[in-house]
Amino acid sequence: MAANANNSKPKVQSNIDSETYEEASAILKELGINHATAISMFYHQIVNQGKLPFDVGVSKERLADIRLGAAIKTIPSKRAKSKAELMEWLENADKEDE
């Protein structure tokens, strides 16, 4: 946070990806507020609530994806060097299920 020499108010700057910026800009325009007002509102809500004014977390779907990815990493795997080796492995896998 940097203080502006001509103004006693601190200046807040942030970098954000272009796609998010454009989508947020369109929504803010529909609401009739600019970026500075939105950021000011955000900060006021942090002060009023004593926390972020929204829940921070991942969706149930994303959490399931993360857990599935972790589970998949625990499955033993072997790279087949040839089609014949792959076919042999598949045949043996079927026999193990019996």
From TrEMBL:
Q: Which GO terms describe its biological process?
A: regulation of DNA-templated transcription
Q: Which domain of life is it from?
A: Bacteria
Q: Which InterPro entries match?
A: Arc_rbn_hlx_hlx, RelB/DinJ
Gene3D superfamilies xrefs = Met repressor-like (1.10.1220.10)
**Pfam families in UniProt:** RelB
Q: Which NCBIfam families match?
A: RelB_DinJ
Q: What is this protein identified as? A: RelB/DinJ family addiction module antitoxin
**Record organism:** Secundilactobacillus malefermentans
